[in-house]
Write a structure and sequence with these properties.
- The protein has a domain of 75 residues.
- Helix content is 63%, strand content 0%.
- By secondary structure, it is mostly helical.
């Protein structure tokens, strides 16, 4: 029979106490801090997206201005080169263009100058007008416009007929009438036959 029961019991108690002290407590995983930091970062990102971008620094603005100035200078230089090329092309075209053909000479019937009309004999007016129109019609190179037509007709007047048109002649040589028909109408009003039918019948009887 064992004579040390108290010592054995004491040893058992010590073993139990040691086992209790050496037992590792269960691990507990706590992510609360990480969740908080993640939420904070998400909020900062959302605020950054909603905040409008501010202007760049002075250095960025200066760089952008330099780029724009350089682009404008290059565009101006290119435009100047294009204008020079166009001017050279036009100059070359003028030099190599064939000369304009000379105006063809009037090859129709050659008409003498229209006689003068003085207005002293009204019966000559119709014949004078017909001769005037014939000369102008068949020598167009001499009469390029209505002023040329009227100046020629004026130079074929004399006497009281000349005085009838003279008030319409300006100091610069221009005649202040619309065209040759207006010129002729003015002469007909002053020197035309007031009754052409009666005159024609009288001439027929005389014949």
């Amino acid at each position: 029979m064992c004579s040390h029961p108290a010592a054995i019991a004491d040893l058992r108690n010590q073993i139990t106490i040691l086992q209790a002290q050496t037992q590792t407590p269960p691990l507990v995983c706590d992510h609360a801090d990480y969740e908080t930091r993640l939420t904070t970062l998400r909020n900062e990102l959302e605020v950054a997206r909603q905040t409008p971008r501010t202007a760049g620094t002075d250095k960025d603005l200066r760089r952008e201005l330099d780029d724009m100035t350089r682009d404008a200078r290059e565009a101006s230089e290119e435009g100047r080169n294009l204008r020079m090329q166009l001017a050279n092309a036009l100059s070359l075209a003028v030099r190599v263009a064939p000369p304009a053909p000379d105006q063809p000479e009037d090859r129709g019937q050659k008409f003498p100058d229209c006689p003068d009309f003085s207005g002293s004999d009204r019966t000559q007016l119709r014949g004078w007008i017909a001769q005037l129109r014939m000369v102008i019609r068949h020598t167009p190179s001499r009469f390029p416009d209505e002023q040329a037509n009227m100046r020629y007709a004026f130079n074929r007047l004399s006497g009281i007929a000349l005085k009838q048109i003279l008030p319409h002649v300006h100091d610069n040589g221009e005649i202040g009438l619309e065209d040759l028909p207006a010129f002729i109408q003015l002469l007909e009003a002053a020197f035309g036959d007031p009754d052409r039918v009666a005159t024609a019948e009288r001439n027929m009887k005389e014949i």
